[in-house]
Amino acid sequence: MLYHPDKHRDPELKKQAEQLFTYAHQAYEVLSDPQSRAIYDIFGKKGLEVEGWEVVERKRTSAEIREEYERLQRERDERRLQQRTNPKGTISVGIDVTDLFDRYEEDFEDVPGGGFPHIEINRMHISQSIEAPLTTSDTAVLSGSLSTRNGNGGGNINLCVRRVTSARGWGELEFGAGDIRGPLFGMKVFRNVTARCFVTAQWGLQFSSRGVRPSATTMMARHLDQNTMGYLQWRWGSQSAMTTSIVRDTKTSHFTLALQLGVPHSYLMMSYQYKFQDEDQTKVKGSIKTGFFGTVVEYGAERKISPHSVLAATVCVGVPQGVSLKIRLNRASQTYLFPIHLTDQILPSAVFYATVGPLAIYLAVQKLIIMPYVRAQKEQELEKQKEDSASEIARRKQEAEASVLLMQESVKRIVDAEESKMGLIILNAWYGKFVSDNSQKRERAKVIDVTIPLQCLVKDSKLILTEASKAGLPGFYDPCVGEEKSLKLLYQFRGAMHQVLSGDTEPLKIPKQTHRINSET
């Protein structure tokens, strides 16, 4: 009724009212139709833009519409099936720095440049794999790897074809070849036995100049409770072993206890990881592993340094392995590993530098490089977002200003009615980004006056705003795209002054006694 063109005589106001009335009419068409309203209620405006609703039978329930939406989404995903891959890669570079901590000075007295410690890369490993969906149930995985150690190495290539036979299982065939081990043929199956138990089985034949080496591995896993899994694995081949383990994973911790009996390796291992509930997903972990070949103690931490990157460092101290530092960087689906061997013996200096060194370097890099880079990226993205939405903001601003002009007469009547009964009067209302007096940056407040639009929403001395962004209200627009916004209100109710500051998406209901301003203030 407020935007109806026939209610405005001024030509300019009438033109603006026609445009706003068109938007109101479009909303009415969606909300008055039970099917389109159900689609909008479940999926929002994006749901209305999905192709295929015109062939859907009308008079369906919300559950049926949701199923139909999911079917249309699946069909769209199937059309893109051939365009998808899932690349995964690992690069590992082993570094030997034992000369830094354990060197014999007399060996280098007569060697040119012998005064400098010798640091070398003694091993490298590179692997890569990609997936190629063949059908909705078949996937081909092509992978390859290259490894070298002390100047000697080789590589192999593998092709794996996986088929999902049902919701309860899948199977795969693997073919491989390499310049060291020779051809490989393998098979693996997975099966959900019950809702709480599953098994896997794997068989392989490795062909070489020494003959055929068969191998087999089976594993059974069972949910012991909501957060605990039990595993039992049997492996037969060149390194036969029986392993049992218990893994407990909760929101704040991860615990593993494993026991292996085998030839030639038998060990007992226990590890614990604590998960901090922060935005960087920080984790600290420690483990101990003891067996016939010695004992190893590990401790370390990992942290999310960007939306797609995780950095981890682990110190390993053991007998007879010595001291080593493992640095891992995960970037999306790519993994970069840097195992650094410090000493062959347990030296306090090596343990100290392996612990303190990475922490000091990380803090320095975080403060001097990462944080400024991330801040600059956010500012750049915000500026780009503002540039991309500049025309839309201008249009929304023009609509809001036109809407405010059309509200003038209605607001006068509402104010007169509220004053006559000492009801709710909006004295001042501001929406946008507010800046405090003690702000470190010289920022400028970005707010708009929304006194008239809010007064127009007052009914029976009450104003109720739902849990949604207020930028979509009539007479509002977003004055600072991508930044945190608030709504500040100064209003009068029953002759008393009230004030409230509300977040952009917080629900608001006024008047409230807690908003009242003391007379002294």
Task: Provide a descriptive summary of the structure in words.
This protein has 521 residues and is an alpha+beta fold. The chain has a 17-stranded mixed β-barrel. It is built from eight helices and 23 strands. It has helices at residues 11-32, 34-43, 45-48, 62-79, 98-101, 348-388, 390-420, 451-456; strands at residues 88-96, 120-133, 138-149, 152-166, 169-178, 184-194, 197-208, 211-223, 228-236, 241-249, 253-262, 267-275, 283-291, 294-306, 309-319, 322-331, 334-343, 424-433, 446-449, 463-465, 486-493, 496-503, 508-510. Residues 53-59 have low confidence and may be disordered. A hairpin with a 4-residue loop joins β8 (211-223) and β9 (228-236). α1 (11-32) packs across α2 and α1 crosses α7 (390-420). The relative contact order is 0.06. Among the domains are: 5-79, no CATH class; 134-235; 389-515, no CATH class.
Kindly list the characteristics that best describe this protein.
single chain, 521 residues, alpha+beta, 17-stranded mixed β-barrel, 4-stranded antiparallel beta sheet, 8 helices, elongated
End-to-end Cα distance, whole Å, is 41 Å
The chain-level mean pLDDT equals 85
Which shape, going by the Cα principal axes?
elongated
Tally of DSSP β-strands: 23
Structural class: alpha+beta
Task: Count helical runs.
Answer: 8
Q: Return residue spans where pLDDT drops below 50 for at least 5 consecutive residues.
A: 53-59
Radius of gyration: 34 Å
What's the story with the biggest beta sheet?
17 strands, mixed, barrel
Proportion of residues in helical segments: 25-40%
Our estimate of the beta-strand percent is 35-45%
Oligomeric state as shown: single chain
